[in-house]
């Protein structure tokens, strides 16, 4: 049986959604029997290859986030926004009512770093569907390991992913 290729990305967020993925515990072995991981914070691959499924956590707060997201979307057949940050900007979007230049000046003073190696901050934090087409939304902050497992199990077994009662919480 051919394994599905899965890539993940973490943008502007806390990495909690990837932790929920790891929290599926011993079911990781079952998952790895059915999937091959492509570029992900869980692997050391530097480029995205063609993938069946992409899981993205975090919103878009800088130009590098946008570049990574667009690259992942180009390579994935199905893209999933995982967690509140990817879906609506989450906690990083708290800065949206502030002027970015004023924030940087208040932190760095008159010498705000201006190096080409640093990603250009966006004026506001965006949800990923502001920039690319998203096929599924998996809400939560973060979604529980159980919700992620049910989503992946449905997807890997050819069923339309459905999260029933008790799998989605908005704490």
Short note summarizing the structure:
The protein has helices at 16-22, 27-34, 63-75, 84-88, 100-108, 145-156, and strands at residues 4-10, 35-37, 51-57, 60-62, 76-82, 121-126, 136-138. With 171 residues, the protein is of the alpha/beta class.
Report on this structure.
This protein is α/β, with parallel strands linked by helices and 171 residues long. It has a single domain, classed as 3-Layer(aba) Sandwich (Rossmann fold). 32% of the residues lie in helices and 21% in strands. The strands form 2 sheets. Strands 2-1-3-5-7 form a 5-stranded parallel β-sheet, with helices on both faces. A two-stranded antiparallel ribbon has the order 4-6. Helix 1 crosses helix 6. The termini are far apart.
Distinctive features:
globular; two-stranded antiparallel sheet; 6 helices; 171 residues; alpha/beta
* Portion in strands: 15-25%
Instruction: Please write the CATH class name.
Output: Alpha Beta
Global Rg = 17 Å
Report the CATH superfamily: NADH:ubiquinone oxidoreductase-like, 20kDa subunit
Q: Element order, helices and strands?
A: EHHEEEHEHHEEH
Count the DSSP helices.
Answer: 6
């Amino acid at each position: 049986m051919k394994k599905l290729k899965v890539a993940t990305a973490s943008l502007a967020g806390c990495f909690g959604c990837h932790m929920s993925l790891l929290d599926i515990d011993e079911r990781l072995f079952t998952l790895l029997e059915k999937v091959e991981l492509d570029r992900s914070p869980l692997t050391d691959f530097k480029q995205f290859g063609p993938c069946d499924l992409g899981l993205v956590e975090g919103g878009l707060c800088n130009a590098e986030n946008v570049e990574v997201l667009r690259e992942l979307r180009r390579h994935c057949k199905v893209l999933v926004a995982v967690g509140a940050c990817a879906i609506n900007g989450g906690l990083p979007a708290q800065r949206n009512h502030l002027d970015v230049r004023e924030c940087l000046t208040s932190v760095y003073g008159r010498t705000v770093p201006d190096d080409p190696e640093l990603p250009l901050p966006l004026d506001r934090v965006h949800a990923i569907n502001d920039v690319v087409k998203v096929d599924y939304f998996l809400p939560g902050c973060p979604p529980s390991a159980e919700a992620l497992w049910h989503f992946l199990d449905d997807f890997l077994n050819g069923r339309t992913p459905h999260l029933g009662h008790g799998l989605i919480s908005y704490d």
